[in-house]
Amino acid sequence: MTIRVLLADDQALLRSAFRVLVDSEPDMEVVGEAADGAEAARLAVERRADVVLMDIRMPGTDGLAATRMISADPSLAHVRVVILTTFEVDDYVVQSLRAGASGFLGKGSEPEELLSAIRVAAGGEALLSPTATKGLIARFLAQQDTADQERDPARAERLESLTVREREVLVQVAGGHSNDEIAERLEVSPLTVKTHVNRAMAKLGARDRAQLVVVAYESGLVRPRVE
User: Fold this and answer.
1) H or E stretch including 161?
2) So what's the pLDDT on residue 129?
3) Where is the HTH luxR-type domain positioned along the sequence (predicted)?
4) Which is it for strands 103-106 and 51-55: parallel, antiparallel or unpaired?
5) What pTM, to 2 d.p., does this model score?
């Protein structure tokens, strides 16, 4: 299947560069370009995009708002948003992950990294640069008022539906580990880990692994550590 990619960036030159790169691959194609978030959300529906490469800072409706719009639309449940940012340590990135983005990628990344990110997101694995994403979330959550987080019972209640093993797997996912690594750590098969991950996602209403990481930190299951 061909991966249908939507480009959302207010800089036409960057969109052109991304289009040339994406269209050069036999398994993907650019199906549209947007200069602002509102247009991106509209085109995601019209062009039946699989992956949206979303710039955070755009005039009018920014990438954060657009990500929320896409994530809130049931008809776009299959769409994966990959945030493109100049600065990988960016509070907006964390907010975007909370809003439903599948991960982030620095604009300075190598072309191969961008293409790989598109394929990973389209395949549903969705957590890009696991260690970096985990560290980013932890850093900003550590700057917030932990007491306020703990006073929100909804976050803790969401975990009550998980089995003991699903919680163990969630902790490992929040640590940025792959299914194979988790399987080795817990001495189970990768297929078993995948099953637990999928069940945890369903119970917690998470779109992908990136969302599981956010839930793990916001619920207090995993405590932020700033190095």
Assistant:
1) none
2) 53
3) 155-220
4) unpaired
5) 0.74
